[in-house]
Amino acid sequence: MDIFFSKINTYTKLSDESRKAWETILVAKTYKRGENFVSEGQAPKKVAFVEKGLFSQNYVSDKGEIVIKTFFPEQRFAASVSAMLSNTPSLFTITALEDTNVLEYDFFAFKRLATQHMDIATFYMNYMELHWIIEKEPLEIALRHDPAGKRYEAFAEKYPGLVKRLKKHHIASYLGITPTQFSRILFANK
């Protein structure tokens, strides 16, 4: 739990009272490789903090291809946030790419805590601003305008440890290209 609260403290300092309140809703769980944390069509209710392991968030395209939207490595929070905020079924599946140890909590219990503890509310606001606005906008622009090679360079810079952990088809799916196209990018960068 120390890793979890160390990460929380990078967004805002929690009081002991808030930490204890949050601890009451945390549950340790392990997802085996290939197991889903969230399934497409399911109304999700939980957030998972990845202590060890790796999740991908993906969907199936109209062509039946799996498209990876993002990865959740260690010290990231995995969730289908839009679905929870709108209380609708998830458009995505979140799958363990490795055996993954998490601390998970009920999102709606967390939101109740945020109404009772200002520092938890501050964490929530700071987290959403950073990951849903500051980080997300440039990614959306890059996906529409940057060539795949440039997107791969940005990915490798953002997630240097993941390049060795992921299969090539996972990275290709994230970049929105075929594995063959990705192999050409790797060959050109040698």
Automatic annotation (TrEMBL):
The root-end lineage is: Bacteria, Pseudomonadati, Bacteroidota, Chitinophagia, Chitinophagales
Q: Which residues cross the membrane?
A: none
Keyword entries, A-Z: Kinase, Transferase
Originating species? Chitinophaga niabensis
Question: What residues does the Cyclic nucleotide-binding domain cover?
Answer: 10-113
The protein's name in its UniProt record: cAMP-binding domain of CRP or a regulatory subunit of cAMP-dependent protein kinases
- Which InterPro entries does the record associate with it? cNMP-bd_dom (IPR000595), cNMP-bd_dom_sf (IPR018490), RmlC-like_jellyroll (IPR014710)
Q: Which GO terms describe its molecular function?
A: kinase activity
Q: Which domain of life is it from?
A: Bacteria
Q: Enumerate the CDD domains for this protein.
A: CAP_ED
A UniProt-annotated Pfam family: cNMP_binding
